[in-house]
Design a protein that fits this description.
The protein is built from 9 helices and 4 strands. With 248 residues, the protein is of the alpha+beta class. Strands 2-3-1-4 form a 4-stranded antiparallel beta sheet.
C-alpha cells in the first residue's frame, strides 16, 4: 500500500518538534558567533597593480601583436612573482620571520581577462604589513624581471596603502551567523522528520489504520476522569455509611 503524507501532517510534525528545531538553530548561531568574534584571527588585505607594456627602450608604433605577446607573458609573470627568486628578496628586504612558502600563501596574483594589468593582493593579520609586502613584491619584481627575462616592460600603476578604519576581509561575523542560521534550520527540520520517521509508537486510530491496513470500527473513549469521580463518590458514601453506623 502506498503511503502518502499530507501537508497537515508535515506541519504537525514541525509544530511537534519546534523546540528541538529552535534549540539546534540557537546552538548553531551561538557557536558561529563565538568562533567568528573570539576564535578566528582577523585578516586584512592590501593590493597593488603593475602594468605589462612594451619595452621602455623601444620607440615603436602601437602593435596589436606586441600587446598579444604581453598578454601571453602575464601568465609567466604571475608564476615568477610568487617564485622564491622574488619572495626571498622580499623577505630579506622587510626582514620577515617566515619562509618563502609561507609568504607564498599570503600572496594572490591575478589579472582581468584580456588585460595587461596584474593585481598583487596580500593578506595578513596586520594591515600595514600586508601593504608593505604588496608594495615590496611589486618593486622587487619590477627590478628582477630585467635580469630574469631580459625585458623592461613592467610599470607600477598603484601602490598599496593603509586607510584609516580599514575593516578585515575575514572573518565576516554577520555572514557566518546568517549561514549558521540557515544550516541550523535545515539540520533541525531534517532531524525532526528523521525522528518522526523512526517513531513507531501508535498515537491515534489513524496510526492503526496505516499499520494494519483495515478501517477502525469503533473507538473507546477515555473514561479515566469519570472512573475517578465514581470512585471518589463511592468512598464518600462509604465514609458516610460508617459514620452513621458508629453514631447508632
Amino acid at each position: 500500500m502506498e503511503e502518502t503524507i499530507s501537508l497537515k501532517e508535515l506541519l504537525a510534525t514541525l509544530r511537534k518538534r519546534m523546540g528541538l528545531i529552535l534549540a539546534i538553530i540557537i546552538i548553531a548561531v551561538a557557536i558561529s558567533g563565538v568562533v567568528s568574534y573570539f576564535v578566528l584571527t582577523p585578516l586584512y588585505q592590501a593590493s597593488t597593480q603593475i602594468l605589462v607594456n612594451k619595452s621602455k627602450n623601444e620607440e615603436v608604433p602601437y602593435n596589436p601583436g606586441e600587446v598579444q605577446t604581453n598578454l601571453q607573458l602575464i601568465n609567466t609573470y604571475n608564476v615568477i612573482i610568487k617564485s622564491p627568486a622574488i619572495l626571498d628578496l622580499v623577505i630579506k628586504e622587510l626582514d620577515l620571520d617566515m619562509t618563502a612558502q609561507q609568504l607564498n600563501g599570503k600572496i594572490t596574483v591575478g589579472s582581468e581577462k584580456d588585460s595587461q594589468v596584474v593585481n598583487i593582493s596580500v593578506q595578513d593579520q596586520n594591515p600595514e604589513t600586508a601593504a608593505q609586502i604588496a608594495n615590496t613584491t611589486a618593486k622587487v619584481f619590477q627590478q628582477e624581471i630585467v635580469e630574469i627575462m631580459n625585458v623592461d616592460n613592467v610599470s607600477i600603476l598603484a601602490k598599496a596603502d593603509v586607510s584609516g578604519g580599514q575593516s578585515p576581509i575575514k572573518p565576516k561575523p554577520l555572514s557566518n551567523i546568517a549561514i549558521a542560521l540557515v544550516l541550523g534550520l535545515m539540520a533541525g527540520v531534517g532531524l525532526a522528520f528523521l525522528l518522526e520517521y523512526f517513531d513507531n509508537t501508535i498515537k491515534s486510530e489513524n496510526d492503526i489504520e496505516k499499520l494494519i491496513g483495515l478501517p477502525v470500527l469503533g473507538v473507546i473513549s477515555v473514561i479515566e476522569d469519570s472512573m475517578k469521580e465514581m470512585e471518589s463518590s463511592s468512598l464518600a458514601n462509604s465514609s458516610e455509611t460508617r459514620g452513621e453506623t458508629v453514631g447508632s
